[in-house]
Amino acid sequence: MNGWGGPRPGSGRPKGARNRRLPLAQAKRLRRELPLDYMLRILNDTKQPDERRDKMATLAAPYLHARLIATGAAKTPGQMEENELTELIARTEAEFARRSGERPRLAVDNNSGR
Known about the structure:
Blueprint: H1 22-29, H2 35-43, H3 50-64, H4 82-100
């Protein structure tokens, strides 16, 4: 045996190891607030200072919105003709729709019973 492929002694998940998803499932079962839910609650609370709400929006955004992709524009929008701008916008919107299916929403309904 050359050491490639197949089972090897001591490899694999240890017996009795905990599932990594367990803490998330436990939090939901115990109705504890998850970190993202906390950030969204603070973000939508108009009684909170704007600086704190801005910080929560910055921290929550990567979990809620896809990153914009480069479309390969050789010119800046200021250098483009009207038809080039229209074509670039159409390509960007088509790519966005293909990736996400719908536009993301910033607002969260805190009264949804979650």
